[in-house]
Amino acid sequence: MNANDLLIELRKFVLIKSGLRNIDPAHCKIISEYVFQETKNYVSETTIKRFFGFANTLHKFSLFTLNSLSQYIGYNDWDSFCKDKENQTTSVQSVWQDLKLKAHAITEISLIAKKNNSGVPFSATANRSFFYPDFDYFLKNNYQFTTVSAQPGQGKSILLAHMVEYFFFSENALYKNDIVLMINSTSISTIIQNGSTLKDWFLKEFKFGSLTELISFFKKNPEKREGRFIIIVDGIDELLARSNHFKTFIDFLYSIEENNFVKLIFGLRTNSWINLQPAIYGSASLTKAWYTGLFYDEDTLSNVPPLNADEVLYTLSHIENKIINRADVSPPLLAQFKTPFWLQVYFKLKDENHHLELSNPLLCYELISYFLEKRVFLAKKSTEKIFLLKKISDCISEGNKKLRVSKEKILSYINCYPDAYEELLHAGIIIEEKRLSTTIPTEIVRFLSDDIYTYFLFIQITDKFEYKPGKSFFEYILNSFPAQNARRDHILNWSIRFCINRNEIAALKNIFKLPFTNREKNTAFDFFCYVSKFELTKPNSNFNKLSIGVDFIDIMASGRTMSTLYKETIKTISENVLNEDIQIMLHVIECNVNLIDVDKVSLANTMQLLKRNYKRLGELFPINPYDLILYFYNNIVNKPNESKTLEDKIIKLCQDIDRSGPKRNDEITATEMLSYRLVLITLFSQKSYAECHRFIMAILSKYPNIFYVRHSVFSPFLLLHLGQTYIKLNYFKKAQRIMQFVDKIISSEYTYHTNFILASFSIFKANFYNATNNYEQALIEANAGLQITGNNDFKMFEISLLLSKIDTLKHTEESEEVSNVIKELLNFLTVHKLSMPDYSNLSGSEFEHTFKILKSYRRHQNL
């Protein structure tokens, strides 16, 4: 045995002694402790890692290390171990077994290297068993070589490692008699660097001058062959890029004699495979010997398809140490993770940052940013690489299937920085392919993923506007990318992240003011919430506890979506912001949320915080919102209200507004909008409909064009409140005109409205049709509203719509259905542990008696 074989044997016995079949880096500390307990010699964890190939070995192992490990497995020292092993092999071993022992030693090292290079723990990687029958078919049939070809990051190396373990190395391996020789790029580079040729190395290790010589030997001596000889070569793409190595590889393929027991498997990137194809197709024997496999795609030249959802969830579950289901991962992220490479990026990012959940769509963008930061922005030749990537993204056009550019078009840039270009190719950020559908096959270049291309498009925009986002910045996005397009969505999201990173919050108001679609505005609002929450957790962020200002309040007050995300964002920011005025405003918004949630506990807690700042509230707001919120709190907990003082304050405010001169729409403040909302729902709850009408007219006097605002939910809120007031005052024609107007503006895809507004509109329409005796249509609107409230958890609206439905059904012959809806309402209140506050009853006056009975019954139940 040579020294390498003896080390392999020692590793094997150390594993057996330690009770381990496989080993990972975490076991090395345990083995270090075992050795010390057994021998009283301390061999460090780092040395054990080097011994098992988990760390670079820059020198030979010391005699102390070898003696200690030999003593651990029961020998006096390293010399005794060596002599014993030499004695065991003095008896003539078969040629096949000798080859197998040598190959096993090399393969084991290659396998450890593959596991160490896995971006996520190898045990967490999906084994991709779909490929096993295909590989088994190749082994059993008369093919000589196959390729596992894929783009960078598709997981071909890990797939090969799993196949070696499954078919040849595991305890229940199918083909234990076969010889497996796995060679990776490191092994080949080491051979070349040591001044040897692959032929010299093969002769030294296996005692045959070449693979052809080995094949000839076993053809002449078939009785000496005990299985198949499997050679797996992976990671040699960089070597094949050099013409001399490429020629050596082609010559090697041509030199192999036809046989049925030597099997060659090459792990190649598709751009390497493109260059190999002409050589293979030019030879009838090689074409016959090549097994493409069931999963080979002629267009992509790959036979490694993306991960499926189950494989992604398997790996995520192992990374997170808990079961991850499809519902736990945002759909865009699940799609991104189908390229295994992004799972590796996630594993590294997670190790550095624990704040992002898999359900958070921001994670897609953080992964891209993190990857490009490491591979481009902080890498060598970063300036040249960024320049090239910008130029490539600038030249790319939409092809039939992919975004790509002819290499010829960017050749001048490549020739300026050839090394940087090669590094980008090797890193897998850009990919070269052959376009075969044209008359003359042409080389094309594209990005690893469209998401990276989109990022560099966005970088181009920031350059164009000198990193100053403003109205023209967002107008450019609006005019340069078509609506209802995923690329525009991504560009907007990058813009939101960019603005919040730089704490330029005011710039984001342009998304709502410009004619982006309502879907885009709602998506942008949600993403604004995700990013602001995340930025607050980052150290040294520009958007921080000290810097959050009134622009943030303006956006949150204008986009009152009442979603779970909205509630969480308001709460998170309010708990962390240090500016007391901003915190007070956020607490007022929180109270608004709690009123709609009918959440008396949260409402009471936030009111305690507001009460401490009662004087400052009066200075910040046109009317002290605490007084209005207290009115609703008493309503929820069934306490009597002293409303005379409150009425006087509202009348005074109404007079103050009326006396104000006309103002532009953009002059209305967030504190005004928050105050006016609370006042209007207070007046409505008090059934002061005439006062409610008077108050809206006062607002119109101050802001004559307020109904024409399309970038804030305050305008439709005001319109709907006026419509509800007209119903109560029996001005049905005016109410109908409001309904038609709101329907028209909401149907415009550029008007910003939310599910909260849609639910409010359903209540308004149900009440209108009820009041005008159109009970069939009232029922349709109530049911449509209930579908929205059920999907969005608008508890107060759910109660209001159920009450409206009961009111409607009472006017029909459906007495049994009335009972069913009453049961549904009471069950809803019980499940959510809610009261039924007076302000939830928006039905007609004749329904008052029924409402009191229902409320009394509910109160009786609580007792």
Q: How would you summarize the topology of this molecule?
A:
Elements: H1 3-18, H2 27-39, H3 45-51, H4 63-72, H5 78-88, H6 95-117, H7 132-140, E1 145-150, H8 156-169, E2 179-184, H9 185-193, H10 198-206, H11 211-220, E3 229-234, H12 237-240, H13 243-255, E4 262-269, H14 270-281, H15 284-289, E5 290-291, H16 309-320, H17 331-336, H18 340-352, H19 362-377, H20 382-395, E6 397-398, E7 403-406, H21 411-416, H22 418-427, E8 430-435, E9 442-447, H23 450-464, H24 471-480, H25 486-501, H26 509-513, H27 518-537, H28 550-558, H29 564-576, H30 580-597, H31 600-611, H32 614-620, H33 625-636, H34 643-659, H35 670-685, H36 689-702, H37 714-728, H38 732-747, H39 755-771, H40 775-792, H41 795-810, H42 815-831, H43 848-862
Parallel strand pairs: 1-4, 1-5, 2-3, 3-4
Antiparallel strand pairs: 6-7, 7-9, 8-9
Helix pairs in contact: 2-3, 2-4, 4-5, 20-23, 23-25, 25-27, 27-29, 29-30, 30-31, 30-33, 31-33, 33-35, 34-36, 35-36, 35-37, 36-37, 37-38, 37-39, 38-39, 39-40, 39-41, 40-41, 41-42
Write a concise synopsis of the structure shown.
The protein folds into six domains: 3-88, no CATH class; 95-291, Rossmann fold (3-Layer(aba) Sandwich), CATH 3.40.50; 309-374; 379-452, Arc Repressor Mutant, subunit A (Orthogonal Bundle), CATH 1.10.10; 468-547, no CATH class; 635-860, Alpha Horseshoe (Serine Threonine Protein Phosphatase 5, Tetratricopeptide repeat). Helices cover 63% and strands 5% of the residues.
